[in-house]
Write a structure and sequence with these properties.
By secondary structure, this protein is α/β, with parallel strands linked by helices. It has twelve helices and eleven strands. Helix 1 packs across helix 2, helix 1 crosses helix 4 and helix 5 crosses helix 11.
Length: 304
């Protein structure tokens, strides 16, 4: 049994298509199919349900896949440890982040890359469900997500900051604004399927109001693109100011009543082997005061 055969199996399970899996592995489809058939022969179990197209894995195949993830993770951990012993980390740190936390990622990845110049970073925008799955399947080293997510199991959590919500607007307001007052403004907000939006909808409701945004976006970048047009206001997380700042002509207004959201932090799977790259990022996180940096930035925009 070769590690390459296990890599092919992992790719097939991920892509759920022989041709796409072969392309991801930079081999021909016949070569990938032959390698998996050889793996089945060596283990003496059927691994793939075959029909006119890929139909999934057999129960035995699911068990082999779980071991394949673990074996390949062990291989990667060994390689990382040896590179560290030679004087510097190499390899790729795989980070998954929920969309609303992506703007804070550079506060960690930049010092990480400065400390480990031979390492690389791969940062993917993922849903909470995707993060949970990929952590369990050894496909991520670490995730940046909400720490109170009920789907996270068998993980270690490292808090970074708590979301703070503020109004971004050109409209005349007092020094602060209530949630009902904000609901009456022409708004651009994230879509309801985003956790951030569901939280602020609860705050609107608690103040006896309901937001009816003219524009909804499923990305922070899309939201800011509309704010730059000068027509809409929005409720934002202070972490977004780190990347997008305040569009020209707009100002940041504190919100009255509840204006704090859930904690955001790093999450690593609590299983062996532990990623050396993830451990290195956690060390950077402990030394980098992300919360203070974001709070200082917000206070600058508030004139404090």
């Amino acid at each position: 049994m070769l590690l390459r055969q296990l890599e092919y199996l992992v790719a097939l399970a991920r892509e759920r298509h022989f041709a796409r899996a072969a392309a991801a592995c930079y081999v021909s489809q016949p070569s990938l199919s032959a390698a998996i058939r050889k793996l089945e022969h060596e283990l003496d179990v059927p691994i793939v349900r075959r029909g006119r197209r890929f139909e999934g894995l057999t129960p035995e195949g699911e068990r082999v896949l779980a071991w394949a993830h673990r074996i390949l993770a062990e291989r990667d951990a060994l390689s990382q440890e040896l590179s560290a012993m030679r004087g510097g980390l190499t390899g790729t740190l795989r980070i998954g982040a929920i969309p609303t936390a992506l703007t804070a990622a550079s506060l960690l990845t930049t010092p990480f890359c400065e400390r480990h110049p031979q390492a690389r970073v791969s940062l993917d925008s993922l849903s909470s469900a995707e993060i949970t799955h990929r952590l369990a399947e050894f496909e991520l080293d670490v995730a940046l997500t909400y720490l109170d997510d009920d789907t996270l199991h068998h993980v270690r959590k490292i808090p970074l900051y708590e979301e703070r919500y503020v109004l971004l607007t050109r409209e005349p307001t007092g020094p602060t604004a209530g949630w009902a007052q904000v609901a009456a403004l022409p708004l651009c907000l994230l879509s309801p399927r985003m956790r951030n939006r569901r939280i602020i909808d609860e705050y609107f409701a608690a103040d006896g109001a309901k937001a009816a945004p003219a524009v909804e976006s499923d990305t922070v970048a899309g939201l800011y693109a509309h704010l730059a047009a000068g027509r809409w206001s929005s409720v934002i997380s202070h972490a977004w100011l780190h990347v997008f700042g305040v569009p020209e002509g707009m100002r940041v207004v504190p919100l009255e009543g509840p204006a704090h959201g859930p904690r955001v932090g790093l999450v690593v799977a609590d299983h062996e082997p532990q990623s050396v790259l993830a451990a290195a990022l956690l060390e950077v996180a402990r030394e980098t005061r992300v919360r203070d940096a974001l709070d200082d930035l917000l206070n600058t925009y508030l004139g404090k």
